Amino acid sequence: MNSFVKFLSRSGRFPRSDTETILHRPGPRLPPESPFSSDGPAEAGGERNEACSFRWKVRSIADPPPEPRPLPEKETGSFRGKVRSSAPATVDTTMSLTKILRDAQDLDDSIRYAAERDLSELQQLDFPNFLLSLSAELASNECPPECRRLAGIILKNSVEGKYSEDNNPHIKQWINLDPLIKSQIKESLLTTLGSLVPDAWHASSQVIAKLAYIDIPSRDWQDLIGRLLGNMAQQGASPPLQQATLEALEYMFEEFLGLEQDKIDDVLDALIRAMNRAEQSSQVRLAAVKALQNVVMFSNFANDDCRNCIMTAICDAAKSDGAVIKHAAFGCLIAIASKYYRMLEPYTETILSLTTEALKGGVESGALQCIEFWITICEKVIELRKQNKHDAHAISTVDCSFIEKPLSSLVPVLLKTLFKKERDDDAQAIFISAMTCLDLVAITIGDAIVPIAMQFVEVNIKASDWQSRWAATFAIAGILQGPSIEKLSPVVRLLLDRMEDRNVEVRGTAVCTLRRVFDLLHSPACANRIFTYENLPRIVDVLGLRSKDVPEVSEEACRAIYFLAKGYESISSELGHSSELSPFLSDVFDVLCSTSALAKETPFRLPTSAPAYEAL
After folding, report:
1. Residues 506, 464: contact at Cβ < 8 Å?
2. Interior CA angle at 179 toward 176 and 183, to 5°?
3. Of 433, 407, 419, which is closest to residue 466 (Cα–Cα)?
4. Half-sphere exposure of 592 (CA within 13 A, CB side)
5. Percentages (nearest 5) of helix, strand, coil residues in the chain
6. Those residues with Cβ within 8 angstroms of residue 443's Cβ, 6 or more apart along the chain or in another chain
7. CA-CA-CA-CA torsion sign (109, 110, 113, 115)
8. Cα–Cα distance for residue pair 380/428, rounded to 1 Å
9. pLDDT at 211 over 60
């Protein structure tokens, strides 16, 4: 019963997996005015626009600041960069930036507040050298990893923005920066990609991407792609350097950079080579697959050679022994399906085979991602059909004839998940996702699904074990949208039989499914009807019997009576015209009144009275 409710509400649909934020640390966000925070909207490609959030309490910008420290008698020295001594300041400019960054992560409020103030004032005193000093901290192997990470976050948030945002102050400040300082910062960032400290190169790859959003559209930093590809082609390049480079490419291609197609092709070649090298480390292969998911959106996918090369590399990665690489490969297929589904005909059989194998292995084998691929295909076809239907002048470009065959072959694979739903949470997630997919397949291919599903139903509907009878009953619920009423008319008799099953799970699911049949398909005014007048006496009798069942079944029986009566609403509203249900009204009223009275016997059964009164 719970599985059915989850399926109908579609609440079990797993979220499309986003790439995990790398520099995120749980905790409250800093004030928007702080140089270490960013309250801009999340970017389309994932949660890359993370703020520097700490595990500790951060004072509000409206709170009174701590008492400033006294100025030194003579302002000399630097914070790894030159500070203009003529500017007013309350910060001790002789203090090491490393110490300030360390203090900014201290658990002591007074120390942390003072460090935050110092960082803000250093930024205001000399913004160019502040950025240069942060990049030096990020690149320094002598700096502790946590300080390097924080330096990267502050640097990234200090240049956060997109070139198209005309009034973004961060972009203006970066564009107006001294070219020499900009060049030094960029070189420092590229050097940091080769660091052996993950915190450092993670941060550097993100800053590089943020600067690429500003510089490349303005025809600056034109050698960036070449430098990154050089890292990949370099003989003896360390795995961390390659991984960091691929991560930078992944972030860069979250949005369109305006690159020439030949440069995009060069990036694709490098990614596919990294995916295909047998001697490559698994982390580098994973980074290549994740980067490909973004880059493929800007590829020349319509070109046969390019498409074949991409799809071969992805399908090979989907057969990998590593679960994480396999999941990432299916993520690529989902992204491709959302944009290029009409070009996937030559690959559907291969993907169907991968889906079958993944479902055998469960969640670890990428079963959820496989199902999500087919869900994406179905949703795309349904969406385009609706667009063409509403646009009378549109030329229909929705040809899903090629997709009918693989979707028909997918149906038995999805139905097999009905036998696994109660094993554990992972199996339950696969079951819910598979039933959502089955529902969309029925909408997509219509009548073609009925003989395939009914073959499964007929084999299991009268089985000796209740799980098989339950699976057959549930399968009917998954194909009610899409096929014609004429094709679905036999299901009413099957459901009435299961409503008298000795197992409460089977009875409950049958009542739920009949209620859905009445909701979606019951229309007496139509020429083709889901049931005839001859079926009505038995329907009323069985629903009356089930209204006295356990509370969960009783509630669904009352809801079924509600939708049964609602189907006759348009006919009975006509003056002087009674409906087929009229001769049974007295019995139905007695059943509903009895159910509502029974529900009020104890507070624990009060919810059952609501559907009964609604039906009345």
Report:
1. no
2. 125
3. 419
4. 21
5. 65, 0, 35
6. 378, 382, 481, 482
7. negative
8. 26
9. yes
Q: Which of 122, 154, 123, 117 is nearest to 138 (CA)?
A: 154
* Spatial distance between the Cα atoms of 221 and 258, rounded to a whole number of angstroms: 13
380: closest CA among 444, 331, 432, 434? 444
- Name the token pair of 389: 């239907």
Q: Of 503, 479, 482, 501, give the one whose Cα is nearest residue 491.
A: 479
CA distance 91 to 69: 7
Q: Is residue 263 over pLDDT 90?
A: yes
d(CA 394, CA 410): 31
CA distance 155 to 148: 10
CA distances from 30 to 36, 59, 109, 135 (A): 7, 8, 14, 21
Encode pLDDT of 403-460 as tens digits.
888 999 999 999 998 887 666 777 888 889 999 999 999 999 999 999 999 999 999 9
Residue with tokens 């554990």: 424
Q: How many Cβ atoms from other residues are within 10 Å of residue 595's Cβ?
A: 27
Backbone φ and ψ for 296, nearest 5 degrees, come out as -65, -25
Q: Which residue has the tokens 């370099």?
A: 234
Instruction: Give the pLDDT band (50/70/90) at residue 57.
Output: very low
Strand, helix or coil at 398? coil
Name 275's Cβ contacts closer than 8 Å, sequence gap at least 6: 285, 288, 289, 292, 313, 316, 317
Burial class (CB in 10 A: 0-12, 13-18, 19+), 179: exposed
Amino acid at 406: P
What's the pLDDT tens digit per position in 469-498? Answer: 999 999 999 999 999 999 998 999 999 999
Cα distances (angstroms) measured from residue 208 to each of 151, 211, 272, 377, 490: 14, 5, 22, 34, 62
Sign of CA dihedral 292, 294, 295, 300: positive
CB-based contact 229:267 (threshold 8 Å)? yes
Q: Quick one: pLDDT at residue 316? A: 92
Residue 548 gets which letter from DSSP? T
Quote the CA–CA distance of 455 and 412 in Å, as a whole number: 10
Q: Give CA 348 to chain center in angstroms.
A: 22
Structure tokens at 268: 């694709």
d(CA 41, CA 152): 20
Other beta carbons within 10 angstroms of residue 295's beta carbon come to 21
Q: How far apart are CA 93 and CA 71, in angstroms?
A: 9
Is residue 31's pLDDT more than 70?
A: no
Q: pLDDT value at position 423?
A: 63
- Write the CA distances from 611 to 26, 112, 595, 606, integer angstroms: 44, 58, 10, 10
Residue 273 pLDDT more than 90? yes
Token pair 């057969």 is found at: 319
* Tokens coding 472: 């057959």
Nearest one of 278, 276, 267 to 300, comparing CA atoms: 267
| Identity of the amino acid at 192 | T
**pLDDT on residue 36:** 44
For residue 572, pLDDT beyond 80: no
What confidence score (pLDDT) does residue 391 get? 63
Question: Scanning the structure block, which residue is given the tokens 């089955």?
Answer: 438
Q: Are 288 and 246 in contact (CB under 8 A)?
A: yes
Backbone angles phi, psi at 301, to 5 degrees: -65, -20
